[in-house]
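Hi support team,

I've been running sequence recovery on a batch of backbones for a student project. Most finish fine, but this one hangs at about 90% for roughly twenty minutes before it completes. I'm not sure whether the input is malformed or the queue is just slow. I've pasted the structure tokens below so you can try to reproduce it. Let me know if you need the job ID as well.

Thanks,
M.K.
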């Protein structure tokens, strides 16, 4: 199974970017799906601006004619802001606008993609484990995963087994 290394969002005053390893699961896949469909990155063309999340959110509300409760806005690194829309169609409308101007600064509106912030790495660490006196009803891949725990992925069982 492939694990993902994704940069964590951090406040601007934080030190160097940190990383975490997220094991692929249905929850992680659902979150990536939600971000892919409803996430929007807002990046300033000029790095020196005085815009706040509130002023950028208001500008997007006015441009798209959306109610205030349809989006959530926050600061984000390495971009300036991140917006999560309740509806994918609202995000698509914002992407189609392309850019907005807030307090004299121009901001680009780009769809969120995991390839912008994450790197797919494959960890090829194989370990051979010998387990004695394991009950026969657990002698399968599912049974071995149950015995070894959730954090271990069983690739295969040795064909030379002893009862």
């Amino acid at each position: 199974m492939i694990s993902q290394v994704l940069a964590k969002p951090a406040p601007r005053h934080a030190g160097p970017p940190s990383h975490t390893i997220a094991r692929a699961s249905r929850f992680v896949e659902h979150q990536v799906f939600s971000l892919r469909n409803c996430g929007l990155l807002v990046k300033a063309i000029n790095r020196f601006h005085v815009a706040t999340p509130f002023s950028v959110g208001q500008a997007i509300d006015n441009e798209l004619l959306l109610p205030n409760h349809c989006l959530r806005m926050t600061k984000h690194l390495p971009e300036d802001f991140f917006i999560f829309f309740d509806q994918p169609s609202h995000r698509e409308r914002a992407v189609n606008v392309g850019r907005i101007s807030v307090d004299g600064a121009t901001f680009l509106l780009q769809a969120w993609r995991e390839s912008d912030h994450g790197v797919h790495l494959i960890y090829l660490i194989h370990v051979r484990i010998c387990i004695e006196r394991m009950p026969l009803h657990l002698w399968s891949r599912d049974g071995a995963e149950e015995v070894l725990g959730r954090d271990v992925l069983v690739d295969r069982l040795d064909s030379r087994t002893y009862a």
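--
Follow-up from support: It reproduced on our side and the slowdown came from queue contention, not your input. Residues 143 and 149 are 10 Å apart (CA to CA). No action needed from you.
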